[in-house]
Amino acid sequence: METTIDEYNVNNQAVLLGGITSLIFGVLLLTWTGATLTVITLLIGLWWLIQGLFLILNVFQDRSQWIWKLLSGIIGVLAGILVLQHPLQSAIILPATLVFILGIMGIVIGITSLIAAFGGEGWGIGAFGIISIIIGVTLATNVIIGAQFLLWITAGLLILEGVVAIYMAYK
User: Of the N and C termini of the chain, which has fewer Cβ atoms inside 10 Å?
Assistant: First the structure.
C-alpha cells in the first residue's frame, strides 16, 4: 500500500504535536511539579471514570466475561470519582503507591536473582540481585523521595521524547 503525501504530512504533524506536548509536559513537570502532577492526576481520574462507565455500558452489549467488565467498570468509576474529589491528595498518593509497588517488585526480583545465583547461574546475577534488593528496599521505605525521583525521571524522559519526536517530524 502506497502512502500519499497528504498521509505523510498528517503523520508528521501528529508526531510534531505529540513531541511538542511531551516537551511541554516534561518541562512543566520539572518546573511546576505540584500543579502539573495535579492536572495529570485529574486527567487520569477522568479517564478512569469514563473508561469505567464504558465498561459498565459494554456489559449490556456483550455478555462475555460480564462479571469482570462490571467489576472493572465499578472500580474505574469509584477510582475516578475518588481522584476527582481529592485531586491534591491523589497527586501525592498515586506516585507514592507506584513507587512502593516498584520497591516490592525490586525486592522480589532481587530475591529470585539471588536464588538463581545460588542455583548455579553465576555471581553476575547474584550481584544484580543484591543491587535490586537495595534499590527495592530504598524505594519501599522512602516512597516520597522515590516518588520525587520518579517524577524527575518521567520529566526527563518526556523532554527527551519531545525533542526526538520534534526532530523526527522535521527530518
Answer: N
Assign 9 to helix, strand or coil: helix
**Could you read off the pLDDT of 133-162 as tens digits, one per residue?**
999 999 999 988 888 888 889 899 999 999
In whole angstroms, how far apart are CA 66 and each of 55, 59, 62?
Answer: 9, 5, 7
CA dist 94 and 100 (Å) reads 10
Q: What's the first-to-final CA gap in the chain, in angstroms?
A: 23
Distance CA 131, CA 139 (A): 12
**Would you state the cell numbers that stand for residue 9, as one nine-digit string?**
504530512
| Euclidean distance between CA atoms 166 and 23, whole angstroms | 9
99 in Cβ contact with 111 (< 8 Å): no
| Reported pTM | 0.64
Q: Do the beta carbons of residue 48 and residue 74 sit within 8 Å? A: no
Dump the DSSP string for 40-52: HHHHHHHHHHHHH
95 pLDDT tier (thresholds 50, 70, 90): confident
The crossing angle, in degrees rounded to 10, of helices 87-116 and 143-170 is 90
Count, residues in the chain: 171
